[in-house]
Automatic annotation (TrEMBL):
Coiled coil: none annotated. InterPro entries: Anthrone_oxy. The chain crosses the membrane at residues 89-107. PANTHER family: ANTHRONE OXYGENASE ENCC (PTHR35042), DUF1772-DOMAIN-CONTAINING PROTEIN (PTHR35042:SF1). Its main location: membrane. It comes from the Eukaryota. It is a multi-pass membrane protein. One of its GO terms (cellular component) is membrane. The keyword Secreted does not apply. It is found in: Membrane. Keywords: Membrane, Transmembrane, Transmembrane helix. Belongs to the anthrone oxygenase family. This is DUF1772-domain-containing protein.
Length: 171
């Protein structure tokens, strides 16, 4: 570790990248480990309303945090003095923004099914027993549970981004 101070823009980019990726990691993992198990204890219509509220909030908050983090890491990669730091910061940026393609590839199908379930309970006022029927053998509870598992993968991407960014900044 060098004893010279880094210029202010570098320190700001490090702070922004690390903070945004680690905050997003904490938020994402909290959904799967704390919120989803509580939702699964709820009756289906309530669970679906709560999941939808979480989903609507998350789709607005997550991508901007990932973008800020990725841009900060890529700025650091561009201004890095060593090829190993350049590579590490570039990978940290890719991991941070990787939640977007991960969501589209792995979670979108489950989101669509859950949003259909939300629509069933909103527009038709179906009872819990009826809401649990349909979409093959996938009940609303099973879909929310599966969503929580898939979301763990997304969380691990931003954890890896934050850890790699921190390691690179400290070395």
């Amino acid at each position: 570790m060098s004893s010279t101070l880094q210029p202010l823009p570098i320190r700001l980019a490090q702070t922004l990248g690390l903070t945004s990726s680690l905050l997003l990691a904490g938020q994402t993992l909290t959904l799967s480990t704390f919120l989803i198990p509580r939702l699964l204890d709820s009756p289906t219509p309530l669970m679906l309303r709560q999941w939808n509220a979480m989903y609507q909030s998350g789709k607005k908050q997550g991508p901007p945090f990932a973008l800020v983090s990725a841009l900060s890491y890529w700025y650091l990669a561009y201004h890095s003095s060593s090829s190993s730091k350049t590579t590490a910061y570039a990978v940290a940026g890719a991991l941070a923004i990787g939640i977007v393609p991960y969501t589209l590839l792995f979670i979108k199908g489950t989101n669509v099914k859950l949003l259909e379930k939300v629509g069933e309970t909103k527009s038709l006022g179906k009872l819990e027993e009826v809401t649990e029927v349909g979409l093959g053998n996938q009940s609303a509870h099973a879909l929310v549970d599966w969503w929580g598992m898939l979301n763990l993968g997304r969380g691990m991407l931003v954890v890896a981004s934050g850890v790699l960014g921190t390691w690179t900044a400290l070395n």
